[in-house]
Amino acid sequence: MLPGDENRARLYDHPIRKYSIAVPAGTRMGERGAKKDLFVQSRRGFVVTIQTGDANRALDLGMMAARMESQYLGSGKAWERKLGDREITVSALPAYDGVYEGANTRTRVVIARGALTDFVFVFRASPENFIDLERDFDWMLENFRPAAAEKAPQSVAPKGELSSATPDSTASVEASAALLPPVDGGRVFADGEVGYAIRHPGDWVVAKPSAFTTMFSGPQGSPAYFTTVSVQNVKPPSAIDAGDAVLRVLENLKSQLNRGAKDLTFLAEAEYVHDQGGMALPGRQFVVSYAREDRLYRQWTIIAPRTDGTIAHVWSYAAPDNQFDAFRPIAEWMLGSWRIGRQIDGAPLQ
To answer: Which of 12, 20, 50, 310 has a CB 3.0–4.6 Å from the CB of 38, allowing a cystine?
Structure first.
């Protein structure tokens, strides 16, 4: 066991790969094997391990995840089912992020690729406490710093990576300033007729282009002016249940994009599970890029069902490609606050 004060947050430096990572208070740390794989065990009930190896460029991150799934996912294995996956960045490195569940444990696996090293972060906790404890894991990822050589130019992002574009310097600096702090609590939009509530930055503009569509955007003159988050209610007339509604809306959105979007590229598609205060709402998500007014945009769309009926909610975040990653934390914060068919801050929803 590594020395240190378990009652205080600490900074760990890896002796071989030269990365550093912050470790929460109330944890014990240790290193295992010749590679000095780090494990962190918390008194609160979670375990984090970090394994490293030479970057395997013969496999993209999705293929690496598939290899792990072939070993651990399936009937009678440690992971009985997959809850979803997505593409993220970890300290500017492209990464795969997947969540799996077994009989008594939920596991989140993040695989990040540097120029020299593949990093595998594994977070384990009980399903009932996973979401609350996951905040500590997210904090660790936010405070992970790879060695400078990991960000060398030879680093290649996998196909479909969400953050392959680099923001231009002016937009990046202004956006970073706008995100400190990102939202400071924000304001709440709640409407019983549309059946959801969501937080948004206090200075963002709220508009309703139609009765069942709400759009949030950065104020004019700000770096976030071309950034939007929208929520739309859609009720497919022939859907037989909530799950069928999600699939029908997904196919309809794809058809619309294929017909109308210029230079359209589908970057990723996966399952999505919306945490509804302890209730899981299974849906779908996808990421696309397209050209609009001679400018490249990226859009992340999530389709989530209501708790009953055949209405699907379509949540979308869109931004110019060179600003997508800078403002994504605001979009994720809004998504995390989104509540469907329940109360938020005392606002009743139907």
So the answer is: 50
